[in-house]
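Can't attach files on this board, so I'm pasting raw text. These are the components:
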Amino acid sequence: MASVDLSVQLAGLRLQSPILVASGTFGYGTEYADLVDVSSLGALVTKAVTLEPREGNPPPRICETPAGMLNAIGLQNPGVEAFIAEKLPALREFGVPVIVNIAGADTEEYLRVAERLGSAEGVAALELNVSCPNVKAGGMHCGVREDLLAEVVSAVRPVWPRPLITKLSPNVTDIAALARAAVEAGSDALSLINTLLGMAIDVERRRPVLANVTGGLSGPAIRPVAVRMIWEVARAVSVPLIGMGGIMTGRDALEFILAGATAIAVGTANFVNPDTVAEVRKGLEDYCRRHGIMRIADLVGAAQQSGRQT
Amino acid sequence: MTTSRRATVVAREQVTPLHSRLRLRAPEIAQQAQPGQFVHLRVTQAWDPLLRRPFSVMLADPRGGVIDLLVQVVGRGSEILAAAAPGQSFDLLGPLGTPFPLPPAGSQVILVAGGVGVAPLIFLADALANAPQEYEITGLFGARTASLLCCWLELASRCQEFLAVTEDGSIGEQGLVSEALARRLSAPFPGRRVVYACGPEAMLAAVGRLAAQQPVEAYVSMERWMGCGVGACLGCVVPSALPEGERYLRVCTDGPVFPASAIDWEARSA
Ligand SMILES: Cc1cc2nc3c(=O)[nH]c(=O)nc-3n(C[C@H](O)[C@H](O)[C@H](O)COP(=O)(O)OP(=O)(O)OC[C@H]3O[C@@H](n4cnc5c(N)ncnc54)[C@H](O)[C@@H]3O)c2cc1C
Ligand SMILES: Cc1cc2nc3c(=O)[nH]c(=O)nc-3n(C[C@H](O)[C@H](O)[C@H](O)COP(=O)(O)O)c2cc1C
Ligand code: FES
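---
Top answer:
Structure tokens for the assembled complex are below.
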């Protein structure tokens, strides 16, 4: 039987597969090298990198919730210099495009991290993590306000010649408006969704479970929210989308692709089942064979043509 | 190398009303596991409970291809696992984590166990008892009450000296196991002394503070909620007291076994 073509084009990058791993859930690749065939990925997305080292939040940092988990890691990372010196060489060895997720406390920090990575070898694209507290905005996430989001994207755009991906926060009223702002400011692609803001209380001890009080919700519990947001953003902009949020199986990945995502990312599922990447791949291939689809790219947004308009 | 495999339960024993001992067929893990390492186990194929649960290897039989786990019921995940019947199978990731470093020959070894924390120390005692070198092994095992001294004979039978300590005095000495340790450490010993501890965090902190005041090496095995179990998510951290390196250490890969002096016991947050 003819093999299914899983390759996709993403803002000028040719990916051998539409399956990525989500930032912060796959470390810097080497952590999973024994368990996952990293070379089969469409691209590897790193944990967020900032200008200086960040120590992150005190523990407890994670807790389980129904079919999901909360995390408040707090951007622990070794800083961009140590990232380039210590992590990037091993990342390049995997032979797949490396997308570096970057974060900053203000626009200046994003700009400087992007500049520094621009002169490093082996970074295929940047993903702007705009769901982190912004100092200038009084700790508000710049991903929740169109003007702040546009400011960050347009600051990074001139110093970063390669594909620029903006990762949207779901903690907003109108995701399409933020998507438009990110694209107008120069994003070549969008990824969504980041985690949903949540919290859990330890009722025996009568206090929040996480030391940070609130955390980001991920896992299968958030999938319907993520699919809806891909659907809305796909209608609002024409750049390629990377869909994520609770993908556990090939079927789940198809929901995102049919809603309009060109690529998808496996996040929390890596923790639960390190075979998820391989199983999603098999699921996509089986589906395509069953439906006589030769190229996965032909399915992108296919549900949008169903006539079920909202 | 870490592997991800399905492992079948071959035997189950109800050790106390709260604890069960499971024997799982896991040949690769049984071959490789060292005392202090753990497995990260999926208690269900469904997505709730979602995350894997970490359990120390209590004993490994490389020739028989089996490992034993000691499971205390504290919540949903451990309840499912503790009730597993022979024939049932689970997804197992392992062996994970940094093992206990073995002591130099001739050392006086003191194993300090609190409750279900006895599990990795049984494996360590087993390795020391079967090692070609000679050790003098003392086991101190504490629990709230006699019925929680799960698998105590597995520890006692591998030690030259053994002491049970219960908070209610229902068996052995009354008090805290860390007090029993303090008394041992105050008796001078000419040779090398190494303490290994696993149990509730308050107990480990007490061990850490004692060790800081004595000419003794101490290692503690820490617990945290875990996401990935392989060092990727940074969810399982403890504060470091080391002058160099990151502020937070990962229990899953930097630990679970740490030199007691590597942990910042005063920063204990929640
Ligand atoms: C390296 C390592 C080795 C371990 N070895 C063993 C072992 O050999 N035997 C054994 O019985 N257990 C062991 N544990 C603990 C075991 O992993 C937990 O008891 C188990 O994951 C709890 O799952 P659950 O679904 O039953 O409980 P949950 O429903 O997840 O939790 C039950 C209760 O315990 C609290 N809780 C659970 N875990 C933590 C935590 N890490 N920090 C703070 N509060 C917590 C929760 O708030 C809740 O109230 C080990 C843990 C680690 C990290
Ligand atoms: C432990 C953890 C750490 C994360 N760290 C980052 C990060 O550093 N940067 C980022 O943009 N997103 C981060 N995320 C969000 C994920 O990349 C992803 O957007 C989200 O978890 C939804 O996907 P999922 O449900 O498949 O996990 C993190 C998620 C988790 C669970
Ligand atoms: S559990 Fe993920 S880093 Fe330790």
